[in-house]
Amino acid sequence: MADAPTPRWTKRALRWGLTVLVLGVVGYFFAVSLWDNWDQIAAEHLAFDWLWVVATLLFAVAVPLTGILWGRIVRALDRDAEGRISHAEAIAVQCASWLLKYIPGQVGSVVNKIVWAGKKGVSRSLVLITFVYENVFLQIASIVPSVIILLVSLGPEIFGENATLLLLPLLILIPLAAISYKPFFHRIVSVPARRVLKRDVPAEYFLSTWQTLWALVEFLGPRVLNGVGFVMIAATVTEVTPDQWLPFAAAYVLAGAIGILAFFVPSGLGVREAIIVLILSQYIPVAEAIVISLLARLLSTVGDGLIALIYVGVRRTIPKEYRP
Fold first, then answer.
1. What is the C-alpha to C-alpha distance for residues 108 and 85, in angstroms, rounded to an integer?
2. What ranges do the domains of the chain cover?
3. Alpha-carbon distance 149 to 145, whole Å?
4. What is the mean pLDDT of residues 42-57?
5. Which DSSP category does 45 fall into?
6. By the 8 A CB rule, do 129 and 205 touch?
């Protein structure tokens, strides 16, 4: 009778099996998204424009920048991690989590960071809290400026006719703002922690008011890159006047935020495009708005391919025992 596999080989087989499964799921949704949008864009017979390349690069660069900002939060809350978590490692973890967005519900994204925390010796509770902070800051940095810009540009009529467009983001802002307040966030985390973990979560795991405000400003950076990239894409399809730059950028950023809130949809497929068309149709013909939304989806998907290359390249610079 053959010997039973050792725990070491069983663990290795399980790890590789899960890796193949996750890569298969992500690769499937990635391929479907790329193929569907490429097919529809090809039907429009658009001529290649170098602005597409620049926009794709901006979309891709926004993710490593977010990783650097997330890593800063981890180091701010865990002083022991100050010298152990480099920018490169934070970028690699962020890129991997971003690519796992194709698994609905952001389950893959958060699990990736928690697993990394276990390997790195960082508190899993702390990393889970930083994951919440990251998403809260990105949502606030997306919703607040975008809604203000669109209100100034279009007036309240656009939201009056499409109440859900404004109602959902504004309702979401209430708990997001509450989570940004340290005493409140600490309290709501401590209650389940006492019941499940049988211990309190240290107050040091939460950002101060000043740290929160500063992080909110920093997280505007990735959204600015996304907005600029989208305006470049729109300019290759239709004439975008300078007074439309901010509203177009706001439309894309707000659509991305609402797409993330649709957590049951892989990468917000379809949701983001609907919001973009709804807003852009106030400025340009609906047909052009549809083409721009599909082209943005296609190029952002290509950008995800660049993010995968960034992940591979950065990961190789990290010592093997610490690789995400």
1. 21
2. 48-322
3. 6
4. 83
5. T
6. yes
